[in-house]
Amino acid sequence: MKADDLVDLAARNLRESMFRNSLTTLGIGVGVASLVAMLSLGIGLQQLADRRLARSGLFDTIVVTSHRSLRGFGRADNRNEAPPAESPPLDETARAEMARLPDVFEAVPDLRFISEVRYEGKPHLAMVAGLPLSARDKDAFENMQGSFFSSDAADEAILQIQFADELLGIGQKLGESSSKLSGQTQTLIGKELTLRYAERVPSPAAPAQEGGGAGDRSGALKDAPQPPVMAAFSVVPRERTLRIVAVTDQDPEGMRGASGARVFIPLQMGENLHVMLPSGLRGSEPDFSNVPAYPSLSVRVKSPDRVEPVQDAIRKMGFSTFSILDATRGLRRFFAVFDLFLGIFGSLALAVAALGIVNTLVMAILERRREIGIMKAIGASDGDVKKLFLAEAAVMGLVGGMLGVALGWAMGRLINAGANVYLHRQNLPSEELWAVPWWLVAGAIAFAIVISMISGLYPAARAARLDPVQALRYE
Amino acid sequence: MEKSTRAGTIRTESVCRHYPMGDGVIRAVDGISLEVGAGEFVALLGSSGSGKSSLLNLIAGLDRPTSGAVIVNGDNLAEMSSEELSRYRRHSVGMVFQAFNLVGTMTLLENVELPMRFAETERGQRLALAREALQRVGLGGRMTHRPGQLSGGEQQRAALARALANRPSLLLADEPTGNLDSHTGNEILDLLHECNERLGMTLLLVTHERSLAERYAERLVFLADGKVVGEQANAPVSWQEGERQ
Known about the structure:
Strand content of chain B: 25-35%
Low-confidence stretches of chain B: 1-6
Order of helices and strands of chain A: HHEHEEEEEHHEEEHEHEHHHHH
Shape of chain A: elongated
Strand content of chain A: 15-25%
Structural class of chain B: alpha/beta
Oligomer: heterodimer
Number of domains of chain A: 3
Number of helices of chain A: 12
Largest sheet of chain B: 6 strands, mixed
CATH class of chain B: Alpha Beta
Mean pLDDT of chain B: 88
Number of strands of chain A: 11
Largest interface: A-B, 25 and 27 residues
Radius of gyration of chain B: 18 Å
Largest sheet of chain A: 6 strands, mixed, barrel
CATH topology of chain B: Rossmann fold
Low-confidence stretches of chain A: 72-79, 206-222, 224-229, 283-288
Shape of chain B: globular
Radius of gyration of chain A: 34 Å
CATH architecture of chain B: 3-Layer(aba) Sandwich
């Protein structure tokens, strides 16, 4: 029998027992809906995690250190590397070279230093970090109070909430900490604070290759005695007044734990301060140079899957690298298992629906026993009868699958809406916890058809085996 | 009118169909040897349980003999596979039953179309042939009716139209008038006779009404206890009567 005749006959047979077949189809629909709702939730959560992790900047970032640095990563794995004295310095030349590598979005110095920050005359100690303008897209700055830096060289600062609380005198007593953006933290925006730091100034005997940007050098210890070496430098105490432009309640450097920065400044402005960093004094540096070496660089690649080749290229340049790509792999494994479990739970309802199909079709064989006999008497083969019953099961699967996808979609939207109401009540931003990609729609419908056809195998085989003479005698 | 010489020959050779029943065996057909020529109209007569319907089912390819051979158009049905038997039923046999056996959920047109669906006849041709067959049996105006909306005679005529759909060489009628009054029964037999005469189909009629058989059949075969107990040539009178009228 031709396929179109088969589908036509199957559809008209199903229409004849509309109520019972509708209930069976609804059963399949509910099964598929539960499967779609579960998987769409799993996929949604995975996408949310991916989005958040991507925006955290952790998974597309490679931290580069020099072998000269005591903080170099992966020493245990790099026993064949060049000795520290022979390894290249992590300076501007190296940074520019890394920035030119394929798939590299940017390579920025990891500028951070401990500084005294004065606010309303009171001194506070804080870790200060420089941020490139690209950090604007990070989660931590998404819902902050105020606005991001106006430019890369602006005298502006963004405060982390705990430090803002400290400046406001909140949290001085035990157990008292708001850690929430409020009207009080809002009052800090637009106010000024003073950064006190030590500037590294090249000595006149060996001027820095890159001059400029030292800023105001008034108050420098010009009369200090110069060491009789080619690359001498002075350390000069400086002050810089910064305007507070924002307060964030997130922790942009959460992965650094207690050493995470509490005050953020524009990276270019921070570099122009020429802050004396501990690495500049380290004895492992073979030759002091007036071209400062960076303690570490953050290299951002265009997508997390390009981390590995870029990491290899940087290692070939003679530097140590670190990324938490492996953590992403672990996360993906977790979500694969999570989705599998959700799928299994979602499929339970479909398994029950499959039993419904078997029941419906076995009942149909009993009811249509004579009809099967007639069909065989007028020329239907066993295969035709089998295919007809399988087609009926497939049509129920198709309709049930489409119904299930629609129901699952509605359930997912409902769960999402409910979750967002909860998030709003917790003063948290809305999230898309749920996603139905096209492959899930197609896959769920195909799965429903396959399950239905598998369920129809036994009834179809039973119908095909019917003896036409016996079937024609059946009343 | 000259009869066609097309295929439609039947030969059974010591054919048996035994059914196990408890410790014993029911010998529904017990060594019947019979020969029917192409285009012949033969009536199988006998009381209930004589084996005439069982023999018809064997010739129709609906059942397989326990032993012996059923040779139709030169092919032994006993040696055919299930698929070959269904193809044989589809293309070579048209059946009319006592209980009409129309599919109650289908219209008459759909019922008549059904064997052509199994024969994979193209849709347009299928519809045209189904309409033609229904018109031939006088049901041109009832094509969209379902069997439940028709009288017994009309249902049997629809069943005959369906049997003719694939232009078979063999027409097998199992008590076609059993559920009909005598007038309607005569109408149906007239139609069967017409198919035999005009289309040259071999016609095997199972009936227990001797008068009916004598009226239409060319040969009468008497069965009892699964055996042929008598055979006689017959000169049918119905057609001549019909012509005189």
